[in-house]
What we know:
This protein is of the alpha/beta class. It has a single domain (3-81, 152-379), classed as TIM Barrel (Alpha-Beta Barrel). 45% of the residues lie in helices and 17% in strands. It contains 14 helices and 11 strands. The strands form 2 sheets. Strands 1-6-7-8-9-10-11 form a 7-stranded parallel β-sheet. Strand 7 (227-231), helix 9 (242-263) and strand 8 (267-270) form a beta-alpha-beta unit. It is globular and about 60 Å long. The protein starts with a helix and ends with a helix.
Amino acid sequence: MTSKQRMMAAFRKQIPDRVPVCPDISVMVPDRLTGKPFYEIHLDGREHNGWTSATHSEVYVDAVRHFGMEGIYMYGGLKEIRPEGAPEFESAVFDAPEGKRVKRICRTKTGDLTEEEIYFADEPPWRQSKPVKDLRKDFKSLKQFIGEGGWKWEKSFRDYGRIGDSGVYAGMVPVFQDWWFHNRHGGFEQVYSDFLMESDFMDEVHAFWMEWSLALIQAMVEAKPDIVMLGGSSASLSVSSPDFFRKYELPFVRESARLCRAGGVPSHLHVCGRSWKLVELVAAETDLDSMEPLEEPPCGDVDIREAKRRVGKKLCIKGNINTTEFMLRATPDQVEEKCKALIDAAAADGGFILSTGDQCGRDTPDENFFRMVEAAEKYGRY
């Protein structure tokens, strides 16, 4: 099997030739392998091509092939067809002690939106200032930028072939808490203050986002990615709550999974950190096909053997080696032992992808990735 075929079999809860191995190396490890300042990689894609980070997506694919692992490509997406005269963000790049500083401004009929992002030499970018600062005023302007219905996207993914047979192409759509965190200035404290103190207004925001996000899901399903990935880091129970998930995310996950199943595209949810209650919830109440990264303690609360026993017939499960300590500090032999234990716990009958918890740190030893692949070859044959 190719890596793509192997991953797709697992997502469909079928039995591939061996367990796929797909650790999360989404940003830092591929950038580090290039030897370049990280800002060179990210600015080339983000600022010059706008809708997709071409340079970073290329180094991710290079890293996947370097290690011989399976990949999840989530760096493209559908290009939106914007109406003539629609407001756009304009960017200016400045040198800074950290690397580069990017300031953006979008002039709308209801006011200007501004944001600022720092691009580091050896760390991922960080959004220091986000567009929605004055809740009601700036949300009106955000709607002007996004549009209020009638959204259109191109019919196909321009970069679909970039990952090739080395992995799967994922159409990525954020869950509500991720989307609001991305746009709302003030961090998690402000986001959850909005949910608690401005709940009626946030119901309006959520209704708008639901209309937009499900239109995008439908467009993606019609464009036929390998999978549709729902990005939900900010919905983690390490920072959020089951009540917020049930209110803001469950209706979206349920409808997205339905649209994906109707279109023959597997649906996949990412929620890092503490997530076990959410795993049980989506398995019981949605048609979701797959979930990651099911993090183990101390960062998460998932026992992958128990997850396989409880929800393995409903969900493909992907995870779950700790990245904040184990992958950074373990020897290759310890990594092999850990991988064998996970395969023994969760690989039976297919529907399992050997992976890490959330993203692996920049300084994770290359030898540990190579050993994960070797362990899958050695112990993961069906």
